[in-house]
Amino acid sequence: MMVDDEVAAIIAACSGVKDLFVQFVPSNLICAIPDLQRLTTAVAPLFQPSTVDFAHPLFHNITQLELLDRPWAAFGGLDLIPHLTHITFNGIPSDLALHTLLCADARLR
């Protein structure tokens, strides 16, 4: 398993990354990728032991987000991601409140 210093070195060497699939990397390390637009991850581990914060700078440029987490209903605040246009769930969310929230978000295509 890589330590944070090794992950930071890889991220520094790959600063032009726009698409990223990542798990179990602290959110502060991913923030070092300034042009990140498409992210596939389980967001809960990125913020442990805190709760998920979609207002975090990590999400500022994200246009496409794939959530590997379950249950999805635990994550409110998707409207805090300013440039989000696409969201994907790893599985089929059956939560009616989440469905209603997503349908009401005019930014999502």
Please explain how this structure is put together:
The chain contains four helices and four strands. Strand 1, helix 2 (27-30) and strand 2 (38-41) form a beta-alpha-beta unit. With 109 residues, the chain is an alpha/beta fold. It has one domain. The protein has helices spanning 4-13, 27-30, 43-47, 96-104, and strands at 19-22, 38-41, 64-67, 86-89. The chain has a four-stranded parallel β-sheet with strand order 1-2-3-4, with no helix packed on it.
Features:
109 residues, alpha/beta, four-stranded parallel beta sheet, 4 strands, 26% helix
Q: Estimate the strand proportion.
A: 5-15%
Structural class: alpha/beta
N/C terminus separation: 37 Å
Nearest-integer average pLDDT: 82
Question: How many E-type strands?
Answer: 4
The value of Rg in angstroms is 14 Å
What's the multimeric state?
A: single chain
Unreliably modeled segments: none
Q: In summary, what is this structure?
A:
The protein is α/β, with parallel strands linked by helices and 109 residues long. It has four helices and four strands. The chain has one domain.
Topology, element by element:
Blueprint: H1 4-13, E1 19-22, H2 27-30, E2 38-41, H3 43-47, E3 64-67, E4 86-89, H4 96-104
Parallel strand pairs: 1-2, 2-3, 3-4
